[in-house]
Give the backbone structure.
Amino acid sequence: MLDLFLARLHQKHRTLAFPGGPPPVLPERYRGLPVINEGRCEEGCTACAEACPTEAVLLSPRLGIDLGRCLFCSDCVEACPTDALSFGGDFRQAARNRDDLVVDEERAIRLATALDKKSRRLFGRSLKLRQVSAGGCNGCESDVNVLSTLVWDIGRFGINIVASPRHADGLIITGPVTENMRLALEKTYAAVAPPKIVIAVGACAISGGPFVGHPEAHDGAGSVVPVDLYVPGCPPHPLTILDGLLRLLGRIEEEPGKRAR
């Protein structure tokens, strides 16, 4: 027992100081919010769009990226001969509306806004969520699970993952919603007492990801249940998920007119 106490003293405080404290330091290899420089594009070049496996790269009316479809695989970056596309280091990407995930050089991502005052009074101090893997690969599921560990500790914000939808205020959905999971998702959603919220985590849950259009998938949670928060990524970084949750609860608010980078 003494050895355990000594080890804990040696480890010191491990919980991430977020949202306060110094900005989180992410690895150089981290692929965050895309950076678009359409001025570098060669006229008539479509290499980036052709390389994208999910048709997330848009060429009309201007060069853009649909973050709801993007797998952050960097195929478009490698295919672009003029470096018009790259990935930055910004983890802030969650949005309230599906259309807000479409970004280009002129249109920045519109980060998630808070729930209305009545909902914040209900959920703001104690938010219980049931996680539903609707055919996911366990990537997004793992990053949701890690939020309950020592470093992230979402319990300090009053947010907890619960075992039963009857004890939950809403759902965290991952996966493209396969046909085998469609009825299970509908029943789980129905078991949550209203009012309730739904959070779609990852490209699969937002748009179907690499399975979009597949006859055995339903192209994301929005085709089955209403969605209140979209968290893009494949999988999204735990910071992206946590940032979205705290914005939804009004714990983080973007400065007026500030463009996300």
About this structure: Helices lie at 2-11, 47-51, 75-79, 117-123, 139-145, 179-191, 203-207, 238-248.
